[in-house]
Amino acid sequence: MTEEAAKDAGTGFQGLEGYPKLTLLKTKHKEGVKLVRSMSSLKSPWILHFDVGGCNGCPIEILAALTPRYDLERFGVLNKGNPKVADILLVTGTCNAKCLPVLVQLYRQMPEPKVVAAIGSCCCEKGVFDRCYNVRGPLYKVLPVDVYIPGCPPRPGTIIEGVVKALTLWQKKLEGTL
Ligand code: SF4
What we know:
alpha/beta
């Protein structure tokens, strides 16, 4: 139903003038679809976690951050195992030679815009695994890292703070302001 028809029909529909962003819907369908997708995605960014080696301390802390006690999901995020629907990539571990090709493949499968967060000292700067024969990290040598969350392991609160920073960056990318 058009705006005019809606007004004539007495539905009370006042048009889209009060919603500056939504007026785009009236102009170009493609842009409108893109905008609706962006606005809905802002409320439900999904994360993908991948561990590239390490001692498994950091993944446990990520799980702790997702539990109701710390409740990372209160920011609307969901931990998904599918890169094709993920917006934020959380990486933990040493970036060893065996796991890196898989990590790069997962990164490439994620849709744009996307944000990468390096979690833990061994992901951010090799940490205790420095000089190991199979370590190819730190992560920034392999992927463009947006957020660093240091610690061995970082506490759930620190992980939440980092993920919120990643969400802010991702929203800016989504809105085209970054
Ligand atoms: S940063 Fe520390 S806790 Fe985390 S995976 Fe590496 S060694 Fe384990």
